[in-house]
Amino acid sequence: MANLLIIGAGGVSRVATVKCAMNLDTFSKITLASRTKSKCDEIAAFIKERLGVEIETAQIDADDSDAVVELIKKTGAQILLNVALPYQDLSLMDACIKAGIHYIDTANYEHPDVAKFEYKEQWARNDKFKQAGILGLLGSGFDPGVTNVFCAYAQQNLFDEISYIDILDCNAGDHGYAFATNFNPEINLREVSAKGRYWENGKWIETDPMEIKMEWDYPEVGVKDSYLLYHEELESLVKNIKGLKRIRFFMTFGQSYLTHMKCLENVGMLGIKPVMHQGKEIIPIEFLKTLLPDPASLGPRTKGYTNIGCVIRGIKDGKDKQVYIYNVCNHEECYKETGAQAVSYTTGVPAMIGAKLVAQKIWQGKGVFNMEEFDAKPFMEELNLQGLPWKIIEMTPSLGE
Ligand code: NDP
User: Fold this and answer.
1) How many domains, in total, are found in the chain?
2) 99 C-alpha to center of ligand 1: Å?
3) 130 and 228, same structural domain?
4) Which residue in 84, 107, 133, 370 has the fewest CB atoms around it within 10 Å?
């Protein structure tokens, strides 16, 4: 039984916290803390009404490491689940080092002033985590997260060697707005407006944003335009999947989303540097966030499915083999269960599962780890039990040709 502190109270947090409250055999005490305490209280009230479970709430500035250490001591937490924003990763990791408790997050660190996605600064804390005798589990969402676990499962159980991986992320949900983002707009727009990048034959190849497009037939969803993006799990998978020749990441976007994004970019609304407006400094992308629908408000409006998975090609028993491992999730069912749509659901459920496996010491170690460094089977079993069932289909090998 573990005492858990969850930081952040957005869509992902709502799902993770509800799911933790559904796993009380693992989590004996849950405290939900965030910048705006009223958002924690609203989630706590939802959980009390739906599940009859009481959780604690608190106000915290996650950028203030010392204040987080105080809160950890006050709550007696043994594990911290970070579902705030990527900007808070380092201060929360440092708080865990000081307090000597395990750390889990769903997205790699980003500096507020530089749109750059890399694990460097989090991996650099490996020695400190080792010395403190604690585990840091990085990227326990869907992608990164479940996609890393799918690759690890394939490596550990389905292949002797893996050569090609394509990660395919499709959100075919319709919220009825001409333009909105399904999770934090700032993080989302920074990610999709950045240059694309993939890894082939030992080196990174950079592309212009949205330069590479393919059509992919997503099971239970249909054919969708999918665009090559850089995504953070590529960095750790390149390191941890041995023998890899190429790995890429694709995400679907509708034409309306792309047209809006291009316009906003052209007029400077995606800028992350301050500009002067009527004598006041504003950051364009932060102002845009104020104008756009709150991702949490999309829940009751979103219909349709997500399909996220990995197509993996390699060798098994001397034969060429290709599999597709994926999960399909229904926006409306996610909303019915947790009050959040499928993008939050597909991230919040794996965040809870990561915390659960660490709490149960099924995944253990000292230092900072990515998801694919652990035995994938227990995580795959939990996905089936906790609302994200997966399928594996064998395909005629074609990836890489
Ligand atoms: P939201 O913006 O909905 O929620 C973020 C929460 O963090 C808000 O409650 C916010 O507080 C809180 N927060 C922000 N800054 C601070 C701070 N300094 N101190 C305390 N709390 C703070 O984001 P999402 O729920 O959509 O996303 C959460 C995380 O999940 C992000 O890191 C995102 O990148 C990641 N993610 C990962 C995915 C994956 O598959 N791996 C997919 C989707 C998201 P306030 O309410 O006051 O604004």
Assistant:
1) 2
2) 22
3) no
4) 133
